[in-house]
Amino acid sequence: MDSDHGQRASAWGAGAPEPRYAETEDGSVAYQVFGRGPRDLLFIGNWASNIEVMWEHPSMARYLERLARFSRVICFDKRGAGLSDPVAMGALPTLEHWMDDARAVLDAVGSPSATLLGDAEGGPMAMMLAASHPQRCDALVLVNTFARLLRAPDYPIGIPEPTAELLLGLWRRNWGTGVVLQLTAPDVADDEQLLRWVGRYMRLSASPSAATRMYEWVLQLDVRSVLPSISVPTLVLHKAENRHYRVAMGRYLAEHIPGARLVELPGAAWYPPFVESDRLLDEVEEFLTGERPPPADDRVLATVLFTDIVGSTDLAARLGDQRWLDLKVAHDDIVRSRIERYRGTHVSSTGDGVLALFDGPARAVRCAWEIASAVRSLGIEIRAGLHSGEVEFQGDEVAGIAVHLASRVMSLAGAGTVLSSGTVKDLVVGSGIVFEDRGVHELRGVPGEWRLFRVSGLG
Predict the structure, then answer these.
(1) What's the CATH number where 390 sits?
(2) What is the CATH number of the domain that holds 212?
(3) Is there a single domain that holds both residue 315 and residue 213?
(4) pLDDT tens digits for the chain (459 residues)?
């Protein structure tokens, strides 16, 4: 048994928990344990994982932190993935091997019984473990998962063989690139930061060859026969627009697991698990604790301002490092002073620009206008984008569609231009600010069409 779990609170406070290893007859299995909740929760995720890299994305860390509010969370890399021992290409683990890994980890952390949370390809193993070792499982949560993937005469909801071959080719060609987000999380497939993180996570989880062989194996899984033997309380959560593991697969699980409860959630994203996860985590918490968390108070209406120095790359190359650094410091001083003058909040620097929030849209517009005017004395131009909407605070960062939209508005602004959404224009009626209609635009990654306006004067 791991003898150092008394220190998990301090390790947790310091950031990502330190990986440890459980020994099995066939090698070492990497795991982490964190959180102070009254129950144990074994997180059984995708077949390709890396328990260290998953903490590098703030939203994934937030997802795990949320689970840790009401449970002691145990994560592990299955054999052949991430930090655990590799396996020979011709000898992939079976569900039985992976169950052995899970039980070895539970033994290592001193957990006699745990809730099993089976996500995506981790679902079949969680179902098998719950049916085979009910004494080690007190509840089962199945998220966007399946009992069988391929179509069969008695399973018409499965994927046809030709489609499975196309998916296998997609996995093989694009492993480690993040392109899979187009299928797994289409609403955020244009998020460059997320694309980079997903690509890195995949590469450090498994090699392309191993990933392809593993996906071939996943396509052959069929645990339908074990479903009637699952006797623990079971919650099935499934995204209604899931394009890969269709919602019919979740309904099948709920119909064939005795007493299972099905909750269909809006949206299409199923990987990474932290995309559109708040409602999902609410359901998990209520199922396990009997209490639904109160509505979050970290959402506010704000006007979001993005700015960016036009042509900064060429300018930096022309000036050289020291002169560019001096210019950037002068620019930052101007920006911060104007944000302070108009009672805004400097959220973060974004490379060559800034992200700021204002509780008044007119002040945000005037601040952006003054920044654009003041930096011309330095021989540079900025562009600025504004939108008013609800934002969510995530520690020191902010998120939400309003942030995404303001960034897209800025990307369409020209040099020295302050561009705003129609929402901002409507909210500052009577302020004297003058706007010029710039027409209707589609903003990449944002649903619908948006009318944009250039600020042409402060009145």
Answers:
(1) 3.30.70.1230
(2) 3.40.50.1820
(3) no
(4) 333 333 333 233 335 789 999 998 888 999 999 998 899 999 999 888 999 999 988 788 889 989 999 999 999 999 888 999 888 766 777 788 888 899 999 999 999 999 999 999 999 999 999 999 999 999 999 999 999 999 999 999 999 999 999 888 888 888 988 888 888 888 888 888 888 889 999 999 998 888 888 888 888 899 999 999 999 999 999 999 998 899 999 999 999 999 999 999 999 988 888 888 889 999 999 999 998 766 555 678 899 999 999 998 888 888 898 988 899 999 999 999 999 999 999 998 877 899 999 988 999 999 999 999 999 999 999 999 999 988 887 767 788 888 989 999 999 999 999 999 999 999 988 889 999 999 999 887 776 788 999 999 987
Q: Are strands 72-76 and 40-44 parallel, antiparallel or unpaired?
A: parallel
Q: Which tokens in the block code for residue 145?
A: 């998962």
DSSP per-residue string spanning 347-405: EEE-SSEEEEEESSHHHHHHHHHHHHHHGGGGT--EEEEEEEEEEEEETTEEESHHHHH
- 325 and 404 co-located in one domain: yes
The helix-helix angle for 208-220 and 161-174 (nearest 10°) equals: 160
Q: Which residue blocks in 134-246 are alpha helix, DSSP H?
A: 161-174, 181-184, 192-203, 208-220
Can you list the alpha helix ranges (DSSP code H) found in 4-148? 8-13, 58-69, 95-108, 123-132
Question: Is residue 294, in this structure, part of any structural domain at all?
Answer: no
pTM: predicted TM-score of the whole model, two decimal places: 0.67
Q: What angle do helix axes 123-132 and 95-108 make, rounded to 10 degrees?
A: 70
